[in-house]
Write a structure and sequence with these properties.
The complex is a heterotrimer of chains A (235), B (298) and C (345).
Chain A: E1 2-11, E2 14-24, E3 29-33, H1 40-48, E4 52-59, E5 62-63, H2 69-75, E6 77-80, H3 92-99, H4 106-119, H5 121-125, H6 136-148, E7 154-158, H7 166-181, E8 185-190, H8 193-199, E9 202-207, E10 210-216, H9 224-234
Parallel strand pairs in A: 3-8, 3-9, 6-7, 7-8
Antiparallel strand pairs in A: 1-2, 1-4, 4-5, 9-10
Helix pairs in contact in A: 3-6
Chain B: H1 2-32, H2 39-56, H3 61-84, H4 92-113, E1 119-120, E2 130-133, E3 136-139, H5 140-162, H6 164-174, H7 176-180, H8 186-212, E4 214-215, H9 221-234, H10 239-259, H11 268-282, H12 291-294
Chain C: H1 6-32, H2 35-61, H3 68-83, H4 86-92, H5 107-129, H6 134-154, H7 156-159, H8 174-193, H9 195-205, H10 207-212, H11 217-243, H12 253-266, H13 271-292, E1 296-297, E2 300-301, H14 308-323, H15 334-338
Antiparallel strand pairs in C: 1-2
Helix pairs in contact in C: 1-8, 2-8, 2-9, 2-11, 2-12, 2-13, 3-5, 3-6, 3-11, 5-11, 8-11, 9-11, 12-13, 12-14, 13-14
The chains are: A alpha/beta (235), B mainly alpha (298), C mainly alpha (345).
Chain lengths: 235, 298, 345
């Protein structure tokens, strides 16, 4: 489904990712793990087109490498970014509408939004409230919902557990597992290795801009040793 | 009493004009951080197109008003495409100086193609008649202006809260890249903002032309200057702030004209600006500053 | 005097090179110039002092400000009113209040009074200019320009408005302004490389970062603002002392357009840029002014084209911003073209 080959990512003159290969199969959940500064967010940025990069990025064989951000989204790549980046001056409902702004079926959008409100009643209760007043966990759910409202073909999730309480983190990962069961294709970037391995089919481990390890999720056990290993790699 | 009502209407119409122009400045600034110094020349362009079309094509005021609006929208969108797209991602000072340059270019183009003296265009001055509301003598133009501005603000409010593009514009004021990550085309959002600013400028232009009856290269410069100050007082980039600042300046200016002795009339604007500067000592970021909300963006 | 650090020593070399350039131009004029060119050269040097003054604030703090014409005007009027003999003022300012037409001072004392008044106003405005952020600085600077201009126009008893205030003794010649321009170049270079200049430039790149390092950004901005008004004051005094007659009109937007274009063309961040921009635009405008009058070229009488020079200034600003946002010089100074910098790129 999504294939990345020889991807290099640049921040100004600095090369942050040094030619990595990555593949996400249809209907699978793939994790990209690694410590801070490994180049995970840069990789996602390259896939959505928000940072300068070289190399091939193919979605079902179509090369997206030269497309603008908007066009890649329209090809079916939705990003739920690091730090959530919900529009905190907009209402909860308007945030969701932004996610569905490219869709033409107003009825379908309204039905999908109602589905999300049924799933997370708190969002429904705060429908017309400014999204900035939501708690971190609620904002995370809103951000995921916003990304999914476009009915993307692949969802990119950047550190959805960042800064959240353990209980909320569990809810986030339950949602991811549910999405995966429903057949959503997901590329998940995480530092929380054990939770990520649990919901994934395949795992890539990244450090210092290169992929260090790759394999089926089962090969990583419960992922608990991974973090120590990673910090070791990092140091 | 009559005098008070008259002056109140006066202040409302001044404020309405400033609010229209300030809104146009604020919507562009909120989205792309551009301080659009060329906004006054958009108004002047509207004035000249009224003069030209009114002379050679038609004298029908309704068609002419529509044409002025269209001309202002077209030139605002065109300026964005030609001049401001290259500096879209640049820092504020670069954008500001570019707009400053565009403003100088347009003023001098008007000077070269037109003339240093105002060009008469009296097709709209019929809007400015004297009416009697009971015992109170008012200008019809002031009423039109106030009502049209209130309608325009309401319409803009609906657009910004109901339509996808409007919501995207508000969202873009906070996080433009995230708007693009929702699949909305950057060019469309920015062009939309310029189109709206042009439309508001066109509306202001109609009223300015109805009052002046002539177009001149610098006709837009002074009202835009005051509108800028209105934006700063309201909190630059805040749309409610622009409206508030516009009306505040209208009332201050009329207040100064009323309070200052006749011989000091020339200093009314200077006095208003000085008072505004004092407001800024109290609140350096303006009254309704959006800056306080910036902090929670990670 | 404390020992200079490496970049300050380079600054002195750079200022020396720029001064030689100025002297070279004056030398060329002295050898082959025609007398009307003295006026052009004088105006260019007055503009140069203003542009350098602009650079000290705009370039180091990275804010666009447009109030310089106002400060220049204040100094020009202050100096003119002080230095004009009482007998002359009885004719030129018969209605002046507060006994303004009942005293006269020496040129030096007049210049000092003008510097003092302008500097004090610079300090007062600077106290809140330095606290404003981003766009506010620009807009309030415009407000200052408008306020001062309105006062010039309104108080005709003191400033004569758009009429000329005449009879100012013509004390200055080309030599004086040349010396003043060279002093300005040295002062601006030393300021740029001084601790305050360095802090300001750091804060312009990253204000939060600079604050975190303990830089008092407001204070640094205030110092730069006051220093720049002193440059404008010097230019205003030189202007009044040379022309012998002043009016409010030149101290407004057209002059602001001109000087800002000069600074932008050369590059706001460098003093050498300010010098080159001023010289280039002066030369360009002399050519265009000649075209504007509708000359006969190769037998064809060209039409009179008012506004051409303004158009050129606008085009210069837009083109530079689009293609070379940091101007011709960018961050470089003249000595960087001659002596490669060690260590850094």
């Amino acid at each position: 489904m999504l294939e990345v080959a020889g991807l290099k990512v640049f921040h100004g003159p600095i090369e942050a990712v040094h030619g990595i290969d990555l593949a996400v199969g249809q209907g699978t959940c793939v994790s990209l793990l690694g410590p801070n500064g490994a180049g995970k967010t840069s990789t996602l940025g390259a896939i959505v087109g928000s940072v300068r990069h070289e190399g091939a990025i193919r979605l079902d064989g179509r090369d997206l490498g030269r497309m603008a951000i908007e066009d890649r989204f329209r090809e079916g790549i939705a990003l739920c970014p690091e730090g959530r980046r919900i529009f905190n001056n907009l209402s909860v409902h308007d945030n969701l509408r932004m996610g569905a702004a490219t869709r033409r079926d107003a009825k379908g959008v309204a039905a999908d939004i109602d589905d999300w409100f049924a799933r997370f009643p708190i969002l429904g209760e705060r429908r017309d409230q400014s999204a900035g007043t939501l708690s971190g966990g609620e904002q995370q759910m809103l951000a995921i919902a916003r990304a999914l409202l476009s009915r993307p073909r692949i969802l990119l999730l950047d550190e959805p557990s960042l800064g959240l309480a353990p209980l909320i983190i569990r809810q986030v990962f339950e949602l991811i597992a549910e999405l995966r069961r429903d057949g959503m294709t997901i590329l998940l970037v995480e530092q929380n290795a054990s939770a990520a391995v649990e919901v994934s089919d395949r795992v890539y481990v990244m450090a210092n801009g290169v992929i260090r390890r790759a394999g089926a999720a089962a090969e990583f056990g419960d992922g608990s040793g991974l973090m120590d290993e990673l910090t070791g790699v990092h140091a | 009493m009559d005098y008070a009502v008259q002056q109140f209407l006066n202040a409302l119409s001044f404020g309405a004009e400033y609010a229209l122009i300030a809104l146009g400045l604020a919507i562009v600034f909120s989205i792309m951080g551009l301080v659009n110094f060329a906004h006054g020349e958009v108004i002047a362009f509207g004035g000249y197109s009224l003069a030209v079309v009114g002379t050679i094509l038609t004298g029908n005021p309704l068609i002419l008003m529509g044409f002025v609006l269209l001309a202002c929208v077209a030139v605002a969108v065109l300026l964005e495409k030609v001049a401001f797209r290259t500096v879209r991602d640049a820092d504020i000072t670069t954008g500001l100086l570019t707009a400053f340059g565009v403003s100088i270019i347009l003023q001098n183009v008007f000077l070269l193609l037109g003339s240093p003296r105002p060009v008469a265009a009296t097709q709209l001055i019929f809007l400015d008649r004297t009416l009697w509301l009971g015992p109170v003598q008012v200008s019809s133009l002031q009423i039109y202006e106030t009502v049209a501005t209130i309608l325009a603000i309401a319409g803009l409010g609906l657009f910004l809260t109901r339509s996808n593009l409007g919501i995207a514009m508000r969202a873009a004021a906070r996080d433009f890249e995230m708007v693009r990550l929702c699949g909305l085309r950057a060019n469309r959002v920015v062009s939309g903002a310029f189109a709206i600013s042009g439309l508001l400028a066109g509306l202001a232009c109609i009223f300015i032309m109805a009052r002046r009856g002539s177009a001149a290269p610098h006709m837009g410069f002074d009202p835009v200057l005051t509108a800028f100050v209105a934006c700063v007082v309201g909190g630059f980039g805040s749309l409610p702030g622009a409206v508030l600042g516009g009306f505040l300046l209208g009332f201050l200016e009329v207040g100064m004209l009323v309070l200052l002795p006749q011989s000091y009339g020339g200093l009314a604007r200077a006095a208003v600006f000085a008072m505004v500067a004092l407001v800024l000592i109290w609140r350096p970021d303006g009254i309704l500053s959006p800056a306080s909300e910036k902090g929670d963006k990670i | 005097m404390t020992r200079l650090n490496a970049s300050q020593r380079r600054g002195l070399i750079g200022a020396l090179l720029l001064s030689l350039l100025i002297l070279l131009i004056v030398g060329l004029y002295a050898l082959w110039g025609e007398s009307w060119q003295a006026r052009v050269l004088y105006a260019a040097f007055v503009n140069l002092i203003v542009v350098i003054g602009l650079q000290t604030f705009m370039g180091n703090a990275n804010f666009a400000v447009f109030s310089h014409a106002a400060f220049m005007g204040i100094a020009a009027y202050a100096a003119a009113i002080c230095v004009t003999p009482v007998a002359m003022k009885a004719v030129s300012l018969p209605d002046a209040p507060w006994g303004l037409n009942a005293f006269e001072m020496s040129p030096l004392a007049s210049a000092l009074v003008a510097l003092g008044i302008t500097g004090t106003l610079g300090l007062l405005t600077g106290l809140f200019m330095s606290r404003l952020t981003g766009v506010g600085v620009t807009i309030v600077s415009i407000a200052i320009l408008v306020i001062v201009h309105s006062i010039f126009l309104h108080r005709t008893d003191i400033f004569k408005g758009n009429q000329a205030l005449f009879g100012i003794p013509r004390i200055f010649g080309l030599t004086h302004v040349t010396v003043l321009a060279i002093v300005a170049i040295f002062a601006a270079r030393l300021f740029r490389e001084s601790a305050v200049g360095l802090r300001l430039r750091a804060a312009a790149d990253d204000e939060i970062g600079a604050r975190a390092m303990g830089v008092d950004v407001h204070r640094a901005r205030l110092v730069a603002w006051v220093v720049s008004t002193l440059f404008f004051a010097a230019a205003g005094i030189a202007y009044a002392f040379f022309l012998g007659t002043i009016s409010a009109r030149p101290f407004y937007f057209n002059f602001v357009f001109l000087t800002v274009a000069m600074l932008i063309l050369g590059g706001l961040r460098s003093v050498s840029g300010a010098v080159f921009g001023t010289l280039l635009i002066t030369i360009g405008l002399e050519l265009v002014r000649w075209l504007e009058t509708g000359p006969t070229l190769a037998g064809v009488k060209l039409p009179q084209m008012l506004g051409l020079s303004g158009l050129l200034l606008g085009v210069v600003i837009v083109a530079v911003m689009a293609f070379r946002p940091h101007g011709l010089m960018g961050n470089r100074e003249i000595e960087d073209l001659v002596l490669p910098r060690k260590g850094t790129s």
